[in-house]
Design goal:
The complex is a heterodimer.
Chain A: E1 4-7, E2 10-14, E3 19-25, E4 30-38, E5 44-51, E6 56-59, E7 62-67, E8 72-77, E9 86-94, E10 102-104, E11 108-113
Parallel strand pairs in A: 2-11
Antiparallel strand pairs in A: 1-3, 3-8, 4-5, 4-9, 6-7, 7-8, 9-10, 9-11
Chain B: E1 4-7, E2 10-13, E3 19-25, E4 32-38, E5 44-51, E6 57-58, E7 67-73, E8 76-81, E9 90-97, E10 103-105, E11 109-113
Parallel strand pairs in B: 2-11
Antiparallel strand pairs in B: 1-3, 3-8, 4-5, 4-9, 5-6, 7-8, 9-10, 9-11
Classes of the chains: A mainly beta, B mainly beta.
Chain lengths: ~110, ~110
Amino acid sequence: KQEVTQIPAALSVPEGENLVLNCSFTDSAIYNLQWFRQDPGKGLTSLLLIQSSQREQTSGRLNASLDKSSGRSTLYIAASQPGDSATYLCAVFGYGGATNKLIFGTGTLLAVQP
Amino acid sequence: GAVVSQHPSRVICKSGTSVKIECRSLDFQATTMFWYRQFPKQSLMLMATSNEGSKATYEQGVEKDKFLINHASLTLSTLTVTSAHPEDSSFYICSARDLGFEQYFGPGTRLTVT
């Protein structure tokens, strides 16, 4: 059974700092991995999607890496801003049989202090 | 990007009544839609997978007679919470998957049962 864990559960940093969020998954048989952002009381915004054959994806100040063999992904946020404050979720999409669905991690609550 | 809408965004109902939540893919056809439930400060829990024209597949522990799912067209899925009770109060989020296996999420529906 696929399990997705995110560390840390919460993180508070001063504005301008670079930071890394971690995501680990137990089953490396994945189709892709996505990073999402969720603001309080809102739905999910997709940030980056990495296919299983890719090592990383970049969008603006965000860079996500994927090491499928070790079951790990990181989301790097450069020059953090107060507007980056939100909960960040990673999710893996498995393939085959009953695993063709997104499994979400536990989330990291990020607070960027001005 | 692809847009998924949910209606209503908030609903308050009395205990024992039923409430229907709609999920629509606005600019793409989705053969598969998903329904999630999220409790405060927790991650998303998949409730069921809905395929157009067929019965939904429910996750273990989710009562199919209580959470009725209908996916009558390629752009619309509905979740009906029957005989709602206060413990059903939660944030319900749907998502729709395109042919490229990327999922797009709706803004969520806050259900409060009094």
